[in-house]
Design goal:
The protein is of the alpha/beta class. The chain has 19 helices and 26 strands. Strands 3-2-4-1-10-9-11-14 form an eight-stranded antiparallel β-sheet. The protein has a six-stranded antiparallel β-sheet with strand order 5-6-7-8-12-13, with helices on one face. Strands 18-17-19-20-21 form a five-stranded parallel β-sheet, sandwiched between helices. A hairpin with a 4-residue loop joins strand 15 and strand 16. It is globular and about 75 Å long. Bound molecules: 6-O-phosphono-alpha-D-glucopyranose. The site of 6-O-phosphono-alpha-D-glucopyranose (G6P) has 16 residues, from helix 9.
Length: about 600
Amino acid sequence: MCGIVGYVGEKAALPALIEGLKRLEYRGYDSCGVALSGQGGIDVRKSQGRISVLEAQLDFEADRSTSGIAHTRWATHGAPNDVNAHPHCDASRRIALVHNGIVENYQPLRIYLEQQGVTFRSETDSEVLAQLIGWFYDGDLEKAVREALCKVQGTYGIAVISNDEPGVIVAARRGSPLIIGVGRGEYVVASDASAIIEHTTQVIYLCDNEIVRLTVEGFHTTTLDAEPVTKEVQEVEWTLEQIELAGYEHYMLKEIFEQPASLSTGMRGRVDLREGTIRLGGLADCTRELTHCRRIIMTACGTAWHAALVGEYLFEDLARVPTEVDYASEFRYRNPIVGEGTVVIAVSQSGETADTLAALREAKQRGALTLGVVNTVGSTIAREADAGVYLHVGPEIGVASTKAFTGQLTVLTLMAASLGRRRHLSQPAAREILEALAAIPDQVKTVLARAAEAEAVAEAYQHRDNWLYLGRGYNFPVAMEGALKLKEISYIHAEGLPAAEMKHGPIALINEGMPVVVIATRGAQYEKIISNIEEVRTRGGHIIAVATEGDRQVAKLAEHVLYVPHTMEPLQPLLTVVPLQLIAYYTAVLRGCNVDKPRNLAKSVTVE
Ligand code: G6P
């Protein structure tokens, strides 16, 4: 949520900053801005809207500054307009700051500063921080930042420059990610690695309550209390190719089509089919504790929460461990019971979601063994969890999560089967699951080869403003995920439900021609879902069924059938979600929506 980039080096900063902003645009995109420190003072340019609007106002030839900061915003305090866009300056315009996070005590701080005669320009909490730093500034930027941050409650990732110290960037974090790219003769500070890897793959991850001072000569890291900190330089796995469109029209489509490959990568080196064994290196140190756990709580937000719901079925089914799933935002505040033998698993693509991180910390505080199921290597949740498993699906740029969801399902299946093996699951049973899992990437290819059928559904129902999604068992969370995808990117109202719940209210919504997507694959509850289909049809609803290849019965009842290959029930979500991703994608395109940057959303929600 909000993207920060800062550059200090031997080259011109402006092109690097704008390029970095474009890479970060998926984090927030309602306004943006840049501040450069040069001979004539700080030059700030801001603009409402997309980065291309800002870019059109800049003179790349004229500006030779070699350091600066930039920001792409997702508004929290104050409307998205030029004034509220970052960077923000102090009253004397000596200081410019970009901020990600929320200054919770901004109102008393603002009142205090106003009483001292400071005039504010914007409605933002971030300007308070810029003004406060300016208030403390006496020629030493790092010291002023430290003093200001000691007064601040809330979360921040910041990068700050000063008129009087050209070539210096001071950055700090608490609760919002910041990474420093360590290049040759240049440093880049950014809220995620995608803005850095064009320059270097060598990075340091700033921790909470740390401050870094960057110049072209090097960096110096300290705590908020001015204690020096030695940071380890690490290698980022992501490549430039992975974060480019590679000929696809949208990242979301690219990421949907990447799934056969990303699923294979997620399993690589982890499964021994012959032995029926699973190796999850990240859990090696807690094998004993995990094997004897009494209860699992999974916590997550959004799509990751849907994956966790499937995980609940997997852990209970395959490992026979009582499991529950909680929204991270609820878990963190509701005085949860975390008894002896409780394992808390935080599921998160970004590894930075504020609520999920806070839930993980709460669980840790209460003595749980905490595990992370995370995609972004080196992210805060990955670093703070006691142990964990990475998804390894590569960077996900499209705001609507797709390949991360199937990656989460894969990892949760491996975790559940591995735990099951150590408790009661027989070797043949484990082998059967692993063999079925190994076949999934090719089966997803088969589903993708039929994308045109999902497109036909989108064409038929693109103008309908209410959709229902129904599923049972393992496919109930998939119904919710399908509905979420449609909502997120095409702004259509959609509800996902366990099919049986339809009768307890939502059935009242069904009218003539209403699209009702039903996941009706072969399985234990097949007959029940056929009854639900009949109930919808009787009321005039149109059935869009996701069915098992060769199922003629469903074909007779549905307006559209999207076939998926046969697999065992616990693995069906890996296949059944794919046509739903495609329906959402094509519907959004047909409705002229910005698929990768849907309104009001952000990829990584780093504020609560
Ligand atoms: C945001 C994104 C969703 C994502 C959710 C959780 O709302 O738009 O796509 O599922 O955050 O994100 P996480 O990174 O924790 O999986």
